[in-house]
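Input.
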Amino acid sequence: MSSKLYLMSDIHGHFLQFMQMLKKIRFDDSDRMLILGDMVAKGPDSLGILYYVTEHKNIIALRGNHEQRLLQYFGIDYSAEIPDCIMSTWAFGDGKETIRQMNMLSYAEREKILNFIEDMPLCSVMKIKDKKYVLVHGAPGANMNEKLSEAGICDEIQDENSDIFEKPSKQLWDETDTGNELRFMTVPEAPKGQRRKTDYDILINRYASPDVCNLLPTGMTAVVGHTPTFKYGNQYAGDMIVREDKIFLDCGAAQGYGLGCLQILPENDKISYHKYFIN
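Output.
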């Protein structure tokens, strides 16, 4: 039996619901999951989620704006230049419990967690069969096409053994045994200390609606979190939005709407999706 592939986003410290979701989908070591950022803040147990993900190499996490705030708070990465007024409000509000949990750790344990967060890519791409997905926490930026072109991702891949889509560092994904023809890569980023403030825009960008252009080359699908779907209309509250060119994963767990998890199902020449929910 081939492994299964799942997508989640914006868990926001709801570790209990996250574990309930894993039980519901019967997630095991042969499966794969991508979490599109904001595992931390707002909810009661951000540290529980962080520890779980660090211990499971079949889960890949991207950075969200709340992970970025955590890095800036602890003096690891100031490149996003988040204003002091925002950081102060966050530290005494949404980030308070996460900061408290982090401060209870030993120096070594806290550094381990912060290093893990610092290693989270800002953007990744995966290819399943012939379909390409661009995964970011917020939404693609104006320079996304340039980054994808530089990485060779916009070119049609003729050779299925091409190394354009390769395993991300510090992860143990073996694309050969998934049965899904899955290839995965992180989009090249400027090294620490050389990033510009605008490099982090993809963590806070938002689509104005599910119907606008996805800002990507034709044929690519954007997969995003960050914006709870109820903000696009009451008909989407607590749901995930799946379109041909865009997928919205944030069901609004932080606002009480529960967690969503999307399974990608390659079937012959097409790809379908199955939604799971935990309230």
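The longest helix spans residues 107-118.
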